[in-house]
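User: Let's play a game. I give you a shape written as tokens, and you guess the letters that built it. Ready? Here's round one.
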């Protein structure tokens, strides 16, 4: 049941039911190439009805009929329907503490080009650099298709209505607006979302998962520089009033715990981020400033991947550091399970490279913090996407094409 927002609603028109059915058809075609006959059967409508919808989708260049010409033999012409993704392009941007990433991709998330550069902390300088790189990238690949927008995965809380970054502790940003200037300097529409929310969007829209219960109710947990969660319930990202819902990274495991980059104490992130694991391994507190200063001596900078390697080689301090992080991860997952009851938890981030030897610890801690057997059994799956945040940024541009129109 959803209550009508009498301040913000959309009246159904004569074409509304056709709009919705068209989106159903589009999403069924996305799941797998399907013939008109099979689609009509799947939707439980007459073939003539499906044909009307299909013709509109073809006219809108959202789908095409036929197969890959290179695989065509001399047999009868194939009549399968496919969603068009190849020549619809998006620029995906991931701004992280150390490096920023820029990817040209098609709507399926397939990488066409990728570049990285050292992150610039001044917002105006960063925008200038990004805009210049976007222009060059599109110029270099101008025959690849039409770029329909820029998606940016941001390292902090983003106001949904304006795209303003309200707070990004790692970057030291408060109320930073990248959207308007980046759009003005590139001439492209820009969508900005917090990185974990963007990753959850990609899990909804680009994972290739069929719309099972698992795919509609889940939590995407990103354990990296920071720790963030994109929570999805009933196929929709949980945003809350100000788009700040799902900040499980900053719920306390212990209010007297270690200082978090956000300024509070004992946040889940302060126990489980890469920085937390490194601090534990080194036996000293790492701060954002000490991390920033150590960028100049990058070769001396210890990475989480290296700590995981040392743990694998039996270094007892590394084993302790990683396993302790694993226990805290599991305890925090208990909070997520209690709060949103996901059908599945996806985990992304560098720590997942250690998954084979931390999984038991994570799960034991989760069981400790759950109230029912069903909750304790919540499946946990690591995501093996190479650049999850970039895929998330692509989803910010591509998802609106496939999302159901909002009515009422
Ligand atoms: Zn915090």
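Assistant: Ready! My guess for every position:
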């Amino acid at each position: 049941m959803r209550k009508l927002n009498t301040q913000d609603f959309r009246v159904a028109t004569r074409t509304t039911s056709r709009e919705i059915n068209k989106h159903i058809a589009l999403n069924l075609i996305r799941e797998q190439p399907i013939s008109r006959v099979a689609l009509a059967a799947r939707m439980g409508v007459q073939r003539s009805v499906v044909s009307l919808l299909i013709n509109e989708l073809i006219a809108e260049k959202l789908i095409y009929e036929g197969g890959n010409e290179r695989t065509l033999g001399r047999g009868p012409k194939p009549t399968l329907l496919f969603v068009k993704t190849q020549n619809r392009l998006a620029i995906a941007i991931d701004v992280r503490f150390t490096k920023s990433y820029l990817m040209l991709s098609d709507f399926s998330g397939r990488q066409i080009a990728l570049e990285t550069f050292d992150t610039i902390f001044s917002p105006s300088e960063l925008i200038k650099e990004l805009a210049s790189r976007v222009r060059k990238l599109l110029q270099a690949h101008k025959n690849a298709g039409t770029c329909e927008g820029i998606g940016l995965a941001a390292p902090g809380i983003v106001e949904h209505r304006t795209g303003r970054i309200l707070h990004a502790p790692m970057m030291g940003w408060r109320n930073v607006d990248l959207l308007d200037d980046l759009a003005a300097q590139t001439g492209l529409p820009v969508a900005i979302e917090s990185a974990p929310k963007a990753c959850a969007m990609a899990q909804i829209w680009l994972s290739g998962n069929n719309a099972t219960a698992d795919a509609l109710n889940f939590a995407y947990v990103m354990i990296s520089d920071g720790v963030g969660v994109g929570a999805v319930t009933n196929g929709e990202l949980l945003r809350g009033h100000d788009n700040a819902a799902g900040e499980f990274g900053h719920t306390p495991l212990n209010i007297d715990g270690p200082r978090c980059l956000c300024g509070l104490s004992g946040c889940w992130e302060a126990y489980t981020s890469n920085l937390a694991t490194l601090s534990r391994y080194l036996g000293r507190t790492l701060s954002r400033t000490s991390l920033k200063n150590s960028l100049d001596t990058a070769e001396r900078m210890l990475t989480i991947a290296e700590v995981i390697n040392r743990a694998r080689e039996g270094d007892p301090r590394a084993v302790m550091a990683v396993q302790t992080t694993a226990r805290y991860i599991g305890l925090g997952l208990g909070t997520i399970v209690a709060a949103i009851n996901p059908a599945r938890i996806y985990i992304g981030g560098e720590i997942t490279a250690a998954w084979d030897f931390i999984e038991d610890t994570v799960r034991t801690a989760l069981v400790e913090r759950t109230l029912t057997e069903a909750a304790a059994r919540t499946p946990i799956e690591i995501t093996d996407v190479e650049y999850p945040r970039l895929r998330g940024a692509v989803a910010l541009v591509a998802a609106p094409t496939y999302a159901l129109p909002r009515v009422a």
